[in-house]
Amino acid sequence: MRGRSAGRLHWPVELSEGTVGLRPLHGRDARVWTQIRSRSETWLRPWEATPPPPHDPYTMSFRQMVRLHAAQARADEALPWAVTYEGRLAGQLNVSNIIWGSARMGTVGYWLDVDLAGRGIMPTAVAMAVDYCFFVAGLHRLEVNIRPENRASLRVVEKLGFREEGLRPRLLHIDGEWRDHRSFALTAEEIPEGLLTRWRSSRMAP
Q1: What are the tens digits of pLDDT across the range 124-133?
Q2: Would you say residue 192 has pLDDT above 80?
Q3: Domains, the chain, ranges and CATH?
């Protein structure tokens, strides 16, 4: 996964590490995606961004979301992956807000099926995504913003060694209020060996 490009996402992109995979979300994922979201709703609601009032009550359908994500990826604006585990849909990981030019940065967000939490799936997925962004797509910086109360997401960045940059007050509107977030980041120079290599080594350490 080495060799920096001139700054293109080369979508569609599929990556894998053991039982964990990243691939585009497809229209045929609708049934399983809906089932996962339904059983994980209570677990995910406190952490997911919502439009502040007044807002348009229109809700995007699953197929509309898939088409929007594909268009953003083809425009080199985002990497909207489905996360898979043992070949089945397990969640999503998006690298969004991608800026090229002199910044070359993006923001990582993710969610996972509540029934699959604690298996190392999301740290593996994030590590693959970071390596692709840095060593193939040519991005330089990635950040992750997490509510201080979200212990599950905080464990992901802690396991991977993201650097904390501080608190960003009232960063996003979530679950009815503007919420503070802790901000974490990595630049390409900080992981010359690759984040997936670092993650593998940490899992093998006694």
Answers
A1: 999 999 999 9
A2: yes
A3: 15-204 (3.40.630.30)
